[in-house]
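ok so for the tutorial part 2 we go from a plain amino acid sequence to predicted structure tokens. step 1 is just haveing the sequence, like this:
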Amino acid sequence: MNTTTFNWSCRHTWRRSAKNTGWCLLGCAIGDFGTILYFQITGIPWPVLAIMILAIINGLITSIILETIILMKQNFNFKDALKTAFGMSFISMVSMEVAMNLTDYFLTGGAMLTWWVVPIMLTVGFLTPWPYNYWRLKKFGIACH
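step 2 — the prediction. this is what the tokens look like for a chain of 145 residues:
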């Protein structure tokens, strides 16, 4: 049996995957935090779970939009950019969104942005998919940006 050892120590790949993860985090945070903030400001009486599910969906949408725009600036046509943005990082985006919202839920009860929880949510949201993004980039040479 031929087994190979995966290289987890490539600094270049960690930097590149961190950049990719950061762009994904920005896209997800725009939709996620925007949704939570909207409900927080308006006081619309929705259940916490419904707000958090909507925040996750909106985070995924804004991340896909941002990544599509970034890819189009790299000379992808719209169809290929959208397909690439949706297909290549969806697992990363979903794990990021779920991690951010679970962090919010466990620390504040959910659907509540405060000055102290946002940096924690962003940190957890970044760290959760980063190793997956590294692995995918290293193993397949696949990146979104």
